[in-house]
Every structure is written in structure tokens, then in C-alpha cells.
Amino acid sequence: MEIAADPPGTGEPDGPGESEQLASAEVLATVVAAESVLSKRFGARIHLAEPEDLGGSERSIVLRVKVAASPFSLPRTLAVKRYVRPAGGATRDSWVREAVSYQLFTALAAEDRMCPELFAHDSGTNLLVMEDLGRAPTLAEKLHGDDARAAEGALLSWARSLGRLHASTAGREADFDALLRRLSPPKSKDPLTVDGPIAVEALPLLLDAEFGVATPATAWDAARRTLGLLDTARHRAFSPSDSCPDNNLITNRGVRFLDFEGGCVRNMMFDAAYLTVPFPSCWCAYALPPGMTDAMLAAWRAEVRVMWPDLDDDAVLGPRLLDAQLFWVWLTTWQFLTVPDLEQLGSGGSVPRPHQADVLVARWTGLAASARRARVAAVAEHAEAVVAGLTSRFGERSLPLYPAFD
């Protein structure tokens, strides 16, 4: 590919013109890097053209490119993701997790591959070249559409697919770890092990300072016990970490999961809680209609019981789900009170978002209800006290339904 470009500017862009030039240069650099990686991978020159920006983030550039010339049988288009290299030149932990996650699934049989196939990757440029899944709608688009039946079907398909993802990766932690070692393992394999313990220890003091809510020792102990999920050897499988609606494509081959920047192997109850909270790592989450959560949980359970028959027993599943729900509610409340910019948390894409206070009140209300059903009075009473504190600060709140169900 012949390239002619002006020398890069220094400092901050002067205006829109220079900003556009810098963005164009990044796109061009990504295409050139992808051509180089593919050529090394296949042993012959491969030409890419017509890059289309798919909307990455501050951390990454994501493109769709056309395969203009190749001596091999490649798809007509490919998806390319390149991470911005951090200061000091160290490979981002998120790139390592994502590269290893796609390698793990690409090694599986096609019917067990719940994400795009990985064609090539390169740690030198923090680059991934993957299968292009086309213009399929995301789960978020279904939920923000105007067809309740289509949204319901998409949610149930996603829940079943999440269960299949867990079942197909059962017992593959050693494979995942071996792939991590080849790419310089991140400081923490599971991102939750970093903030989770901090949040559990810090939140009671924050609740008291911000809302005047005291946390009884019994409720605090219950939260501390949830940290056991981070270490338990049971019910472990691959987790996308951020399975928010915009990270799931509804294709004619079923749901395909995207964005494995936090991909890891851990206790799958943290993912199962996405069905009951719902979408706890995401601040764009709205409410679901009555009965939807139970239907989603049943769909997930039908898939995972093949590998974990004990999860058919409510006495086994129920307490673990409550622990995961409690963990997520405490973690996200701590994030709300400590992270200056909530845009940094989870994903949300470009869809409208409810007020953050609505999300918090709904999560604590849901936790109180779950704890009441499980007869865990200490957790229920504390959650109800937090709801009262939030209501005193923000007024009466009500989380609206996703537009498709409104």
C-alpha cells in the first residue's frame, strides 16, 4: 500500500482539521499493521482497502476492512481492532485478555465458537484481526426498539447462549492459563479481584458518610463472604466480563459475544447475576418486565446443567446467585461513589441511559427482595436502609422499562 502523508503535528490538535488528520492517520496505521500481521500469518502479501470505522473507544480503534487482494481464501471483509499503546510501551492487559479469549474460542469446534473467529494477532502492535460478523443488530438495539416480542426472543437467546458459552468452556482454565503465559499474563487474571475486595471493605464507610446509612456487622460479613466466589474452584468457566447488551450481536447463527477486554475464567455466578440484576457492569441498564428474569435464568440453567447437574438444585444455585448479586450491588455502588466519570465503567454504547440514581435504587431494591425470599434478613434490612438513604438524597426513583417493553 503506497502512503503519502504530511508529518504528524505536535501537541494538541489546533482544530477539527488536524483532529480529522490524526484520526485518519490512526486508521491508516491500523490498516497497514493489519496487512503486515496477515502477511506474516499466511506467508504472502494481503491487501486491505476501504476501512470503515465501527466505533472503538479511547482505548482502541475498530475497523471493518475489505480484503482487496489475497492468494488465500479469506472472507470478503474482516474486523480489525488495534489498542492504543500505553505510555512506556507495555502491552495492555486488556489486549492480552482479549487475544487469549479469542484464541481459546477459535480452537473450539465451530458450533462451540460463540464469538468471531480470530485470524491473526500481534503483541507488537496490540492488534487483532477477526471475522466480520456483518451488520447484525445488537441486543441493545433490540431492547431499544419497538418490538416487545423480538426483544423477548433476543433476551432468551442471549441467556441460552451465555449458558452454552459456560458449558463449552468448562474445564478449559488450564488451556486459558497456558495461552496467557505465552503473551505475558496481566497483573490480575480476573479484573474483579482488583476492585471487589476494596469495594467490600470501603463501602460501609461511604454509605455512612454519604447517606447516613449504618452497615451492621452481619450485613458486612455477608458481603465479605461473597469474596469467596473469586477463589472457589467450583462452577468455573469463561466469562466475557462485560456482557452488556451492546456487546452481543443477534446473528442468524445465534448470539455472538464481543469485547473480551476483561475476558477470563472465573466463577460463572458473576455472569449468571447478569440475568437477575440485570447487566450489573453497565450503567445503561433499564428494567425488565415481570417474569423475564425467571425465563432468562431458566434458559441459562437448561444449558449449564449438562456440565453442572448440581445447579438444578435451588438449594445450590440460590445462595450462590444471591452472593453474586450482593457482590455486584456493593461493587457498583462503590464505583458510583468513587469513580469521577462513570463513562469509564462498563459499556453502554450510544444508547440512551437512565439516571444513575434510578439504577442504584433498582439494584438495592432488587437485592432486598432477593434476600427476603432467601430469608437472609441482615442483607435485606441493610438493603432496605440503603434504599431509604438513596431516596432521601435523590427523591422517589423508578427505573423505567427498556423501550421495547414500555
UniProtKB/TrEMBL annotation:
Low complexity composition bias: residue spans: 1-18
Q: Which organism is it from?
A: Actinokineospora globicatena
Give positions of region: Disordered.
1-20
What is the recorded name of this protein? Phosphotransferase enzyme family protein
